[in-house]
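This week, study the protein below.
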Amino acid sequence: MLGTPAMAMAIHLLNLLLINGIDKYDVIREAKLEPSAGIVSALAAACNVVFSMQGIGTRWQAKNTPSLPAFYTLNGQSPTRGRFLLRETAIFLWQYLLLDILFDIRRRDPEDVVEQHALGTEFIYLSATREQWQKKIFGVFGHLLAGRVLIDIFLRRFIAIMAIALCRHSPANWPPAFGSMFDAYTVRYYMG
């Protein structure tokens, strides 16, 4: 589960380098830097490209990127920094709590591990006990839920909070990482 954000980042980097073929000139052009810009400016622009998984505001922005939630644009105004940070921090904290609960549930006594996962019991389906079935089902759904939260919490939410708090980006540059879960029946709809 902890490898999920690393895998998503690897796919993102492969997309930037191999599919879109982005080089340093593209980064400089998208950041609107002068060609003679210093190394620090160019490095900051490259970090923006790497950590913006959806490419917001660039020519390679992901299609179907979801818009900001209505919470942010209550009076038709763009979201304020304070409102954005308050909501994103609250969501970050409950997601972190959810991960803590999921990982705590997964922690088991050594006797339980031996009983539930003894040699040869991992592929027993028809004669599995009720407890074994519960463990198998919880394992699948627990991994899916934790993987989805890990991608959201580390690859988007944490970086967004830091970027907005340090005044590096505006809240409009950080739409949700995912579209509606009810529309997530394809990869394209899952990501937006």
In short: The chain has a mean pLDDT of 77. The chain has two domains: 1-62, 64-192.
